Structures are given as structure tokens and as C-alpha cells.
Amino acid sequence: MEWTIQELAARAGITSRTLRHYDHVGLLVPSRVGENGHRHYDAVAVARLQRILLMRRLGMGLPAIAEVLAEEVDTCEGLRAHIAELEEERDRVERRIRSVRHTLEALQAGAEPRMDVMLSGFNDLYKDEVISRWGEHAFQVSNDWWHGKSLDQQRAWKRDTDDLVAAWVAAAKAGDSPASEHAQSLAARHVRWLSQIPGTPTAEGDRERSIEMVNGIADMFVDDPRFTAMYDDAAGAAFVRDALRTYARTRM
Hints:
Multidrug-efflux Transporter Regulator, Chain: A, Domain 2; single chain; mainly alpha; 13 helices; 3-stranded antiparallel beta sheet
């Protein structure tokens, strides 16, 4: 099946002049040119045009597009790359939709003072740390999980998190030993809390990486002021660190 230049331009939402320019610069030559000089395009040419238009939407210039296409081994490989890029674009749009939906839901609920927290990603503040320690996949999966929650579900999760932190602080102030049964029960609760977050080693049941993760997070409570502040002071953070490290060493 072939399309004339006018048919292809209409279907692609561009002008015939654009297609002629692509031909002129060697980016998209017609499949054949009739005796009357009319350009015709087959399925292979249309597939190439799809790639060109996608890259144009991504902001790439024609020279850069030509370089990418020249490096492609075959059309099927290019189409697979095309699909991957479209899927990434779809995921970005879906995340924006979820964010706007949460904003609407929060406004309808009365726009609480902490609405900014509800609308932020689950681990946006720690994106670099998450990616460097556990990879891009862990960050994205956990953020998608968070944005997939309703406003009430986010509130409930944050209440549970605050309750866990408060229990840690109370145990530290009471002078509990990090190895005590109470401290170890809090450590077990903390690990269960982590295992609810998709993308983490604890959620995926990877024992070796889970131990590494728990130890890494334990150290961050002391090393990173943002985490230390959650537990009132350095002593409280050190108590949580030691309890988690003991749990990882003896009970995981």
C-alpha cells in the first residue's frame, strides 16, 4: 500500500512542503516518484516518518534526528525504540494526571495546610539517594505507588509513619537498649513498613539486599541531618540506627 504526498501529509498532520523538505535534506525520501513527478510513500517510509515526528516532538533538530536514524540497524529496531519512547511519554502524562487529580481531591476536601506534602512524590526529597543506592526502578515504582493512592490513603500512610517515629522517640527517651525486646519489635515493625513500599528489596523478598538496605537506612538516620531531625536529636537517631543494625544482624 502506498500513500501520495498529500495523503501522508494529511494523515500525519503536517504539510506537503514539510515532506518535500525532508526529502530535500535526505531525511525521508519517497518510496518512489511517479512519471508525473508525484511522490509516493510505502509502509517503511511511514514508519520512518513516525520516528521523525516523535523525535521532533521531543525537541530534537533535524541533524540530530538524521544521526539517530543513520545509526539504526533496521526498521523494526527503530519501531521498538519508538514504542519505548512513547511508553515513557505515556507514563509522564499519567503521572501528571494523577498529580492534578490529587490536587482536585485535596481542594475539594478543604486544602489542608500540609497539602503540599500530600501532592509530593513519596520519596522526591530523597530521589538522588534512592537512585544511587537502589536504582531508578526502585524510585519510580515507589513514586508511582504513592501517586496511585487516594488522598485518604496517603493520610493514613503518613499517620502510620508518624506513629512509628513517635514510638522510636519514646523508646529512646525511656532509655531502652537497642537490643531490648521492645526496640527489636520496633525494628521489626520498621522493616515491615519498608516491605510495603514496592520496588524496595524488602518488598521483593531479596534477603541479602534487604539487609544491606536496612543497614544503609540505619546509618542515614545518623549521617543525614534530615533524618536525624525526625528522631529529635542525635541520641535518638543513634538508638534507631543501633536497633535496626542489631535486627538486621540477628533476625533477618
